[in-house]
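Supplementary Methods, section 5.1.

A reviewer requested that the exact input to the structure prediction be made available. We therefore reproduce it here, unchanged from the version used in the analyses.
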Amino acid sequence: MRDPHWTPGDTVVERFLRPDGSIGQHHPLRVVADDGTVLLGWLPADTPIIGSRLADGRLFRDAPLEERFRVPRVRVADFWRDTSTLRRIADDEWSSVWWFFDADGHFLNWYVNLEVPLGRTPSGPDRIDGILDVAVEPGGRWKWKDEDEAEEAVLAGRITAGQLERLRAEGERIGALADAGRFPFDGTWTDFRPEPDWPAPGLPDGLL
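The structure derived from this sequence is encoded cell-by-cell as follows.
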C-alpha cells in the first residue's frame, strides 16, 4: 500500500508518540503542499491541540529536571499559543523545520524540532520528539536547545543513547545548512501567508 498523499487544504494531524507507542500530543495542520514524502503544513495561533502535562498537574517545565521524564504524563486539551507555525516534515529526516510568525504574519525565526520519524498514517505523520532542538535566527545564527533535557531523557529511558547520537548528527547537519544560508534557511517561505478562506485546522472528536 502506498503511503498517504494529501491535497492542499486538507487537514492532517501530526502525532507525537512515546517510545511505548502511546500517543502524547496531537497537532492539527492545514496542508499547504505534499509530494508524498515531504509535507508542508500550517498551524495558526490559538488552534486547539491535544497537549500533555505531568499526571500530578504540573506543567513539564515546572518540574525539576530529574523528574520531567520520570513522572507519568496525561493528555489535556490545549491551544497552540502566541505564534503561528509553518512546518516542513520530511518522512526520512530526523527533524522538522518550523517557521514562526507573529500575530501580524511577520516571520520571526526558525525552530528545528529534532525527531525520530515513524512514517505516515492515513490521518497524518507520526514522530517521536527527540527533546534536543536547534533554534535558528534570521541571518543563520543557530544554537542548541534543551541539551540538558536530552541527556536526562536518555537516563530516564525516554530516548536511547543511539537515538540521541543520531539526533545530534541531524542537528549538526541543520547547523551547517544555517551557516551556509542554504535551504531551508535561505528565505524560502519567510513571506508565507495562508489562504484567506482557510479555517483553522481542527481535531477529530474523541481524542480525550
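The mean pLDDT is 95. These observations are discussed further in the main text.
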